């Protein structure tokens, strides 16, 4: 039996520790304080395509189980802290996503999430860029809107392209069996299967996501008067490394989006899970104007060490854990 | 037997659009905010076509009854190629489509791999290296073992390969069947 051994070599784990120390130093120098909010909760993320791991809590061993959920990001808890007056904060710790296992995915992984008061999505990108350049030693990071990256990499003008045409372009690259009713599904497919791999040689911030993919970002008007999400993603080495928002602070809109997610879950026969109403209550109390971002720390370490599988940077990958 | 998207892996044989296919490269793709997919590079075992297909996480795919067996090549009857499983003496006949380019390297009594789909041969894979006799080539140039230059030679199976100038009719040559290149004298 040699499967007791770590999936990452000790040298990589030493380098990983150095990256983690660098991150903590970066935030300490900027008076962003570390928090360690709960990752076990009675509620689960609403996002239809992020599946939470369920765990059974029992008051005593023979008691009936209360189903709880391992958090897929510390976002809800951190926003409650922000509303309570925490100031700018970061959390670096384990989060859990059911079913996610592959070269760039482990169901248990380390997420760095931080919120800066008074910053918008553009200013937060500056912050992300400083940290990423500090760790990876890369040059300045280009910013490109969602529409223009599709134009640049696929020659598609999204404003003039029907969903059927998107599907046709997708099928030129990779065949797939999927209906045409969900335009965002096709956009996501093209982004993840075709555009993302083409970004492997140059780090890029993709900005101004379609408003239909806003998640918890506020909606803004872009330079051409189109309504877009104040959301960005950072791609490095062809990997999705970070996802950030100028945060939604409107409690009514927050409630509407939670409910809309739940309806989407229902229509796709996905599990209905308890929505985090305490998040809405916190926004109702008042979330300060802020921008926030989540960054995959394991992937950042993969890039720093130039390795191709996530198991090479975590002590025990899922199947060996 | 059906497989769900998360059970897909390299080497798995499945049925797609009525044809048996082999999976060559399997990758989990999951954008932070989008659906999960399993992206697979596939090879159609009947046509050899290689293409990419991505599967939704809730999609399932039918397994294909495909099996690789080592067999001894017996003979060609003018139309079909006959093979035998050495231990059980079971015999299989493969047509030209199934044999394909492997025909160039098939020597009687050599062992090769026969791919069976529903117990019918659909592909033949010869060993990486085979030894075949030269039946026709220009006379060898004595002493010219180091210099470059090559000439065509016809082998006992009918295949034609480029060989160094010193090779003689009747020589036994080692050939790399993956490239069709001469390697050395056997």
Automatic annotation (TrEMBL), chain B:
Q: The Translation elongation factor P/YeiP central domain covers which part of the protein? A: 68-122
Question: What does the organism's lineage look like at the top?
Answer: Bacteria, Pseudomonadati, Pseudomonadota, Gammaproteobacteria, Oceanospirillales
Q: What is this protein called?
A: Elongation factor P
Protein family (similarity comment)? Belongs to the elongation factor P family.
Matching entries from PROSITE patterns are given as: EFP (PS01275)
Q: Where in the cell is it found?
A: Cytoplasm
- List the SUPFAM superfamilies: Nucleic acid-binding proteins, Translation proteins SH3-like domain
Q: Which pathway, metabolic or otherwise, does it act in?
A: Protein biosynthesis; polypeptide chain elongation
Q: Give the gene name.
A: efp
Q: Where is the Elongation factor P C-terminal domain?
A: 130-185
Q: What does this protein do?
A: Involved in peptide bond synthesis. Alleviates ribosome stalling that occurs when 3 or more consecutive Pro residues or the sequence PPG is present in a protein, possibly by augmenting the peptidyl transferase activity of the ribosome. Modification of Lys-33 is required for alleviation.
Does Kinase show up as a keyword for this record?
A: no
